[in-house]
């Protein structure tokens, strides 16, 4: 069974999804979804251990070797991303049991858990496949299921948000499939390993170099739209604001992270770092966009009155940090982006889950409605403070680790502007996080109606992520080692 873990990682959630839908009962559907998510988590842990000790895992489905058959190829980065996705899914499904019951109609619970499993399947498939067309297939599986989960929100604006996401996601998917098609026409293969061997030869010969450049451009635009990089982020704020709380917490911690992984895979594994950064000068495009994203989106977040919307714009700014690390094109820079990919999943997942707790009790996440919650919901607001400290980058939190590596990358590369932007972005995060804390702890409610603390079904998963934010902030060795190893492997392809 252990030899087939790469296949089972994707197949198990995929097979359980229709079963959950067909059962059409909330309790059994949740049990099925929980089983699938926790199996994926266990399998991801085992795969990461194998990769770190034995190297890259190559698995051919049905024994059909690529390019004839479908190949899964799992390296340090892919295994790390599968661990992030499966861990958040395993925690998120526990959170969903209570949250979904309060925010989604009961007759749609089974459909939600089916869509959830399909989304997990799609995201995990993207992380381990070695075939670019299957990247597109898994990307669409994850996207279509995400549209469905967002549309299940009680607010009528959830439906329009899902539709907006659908339109922009379809545009991004079109760009990606055109780019893949152009690569296939020029190389005659869809395997990432084969593409990595053939693209440099085609580029060096000058026969079809323009087509390769166009394919690179289409793929870059398509993936950056999927990951919501400024200014292609317009779908994200509404999607995160009006989706059910369980969906927002899960998606904020996973979907954009997998898209960033996909960007790394295309830039370094398929086209090669030398082509991406020296021939196409990708750094000249990504770095300005990342810097503007950090400053502009943090500024917008400061003026939001809805906390979920505030955190949504904050997520776009945090994506800027990840892209900034990648844009340096150095080992420490790429490692910083990978580290922040993991760290942001923890802290943003915790923050959105904390707001789900607030939504459960008061039916609102507007800042003005959160007066006095620091006293009436102490554990919930303490979780928000813990996640907020990570967002700011306070020492002993994961946010500090990310920004420390980013500052190192900026200073080592002599880019003082980037270093200043990282510091200023942290100060701006302090402003918008403090807005919520001030109202919750230092303002009294307008009435004396009692408000109970959130149930344990919501608090425990939230605090697991908060605790992880501090644990990996204090003991960052494991995260840093994996990220540095992955970055060295990726950058080694530039040599």
Tell me what you see in this structure.
The protein is mostly helical and 495 residues long. It has a domain at 281-495. The protein has 20 helices and 2 strands. The protein has a two-stranded antiparallel ribbon. Helix 8 runs antiparallel to helix 10 (245-270) and helix 9 (235-242) crosses helix 13 (307-327). The mean pLDDT is 85.
What average pLDDT do the residues reach? 85
Taken from the alpha-carbon principal axes, the silhouette is globular
In N-to-C order, the SSE pattern is HHEEHHHHHHHHHHHHHHHHHH
Count the DSSP helices. 20
SSE class: mainly alpha
Taken as a percent bin, the fraction of beta residues is under 5%
The profile of the biggest β sheet is: 2 strands, antiparallel
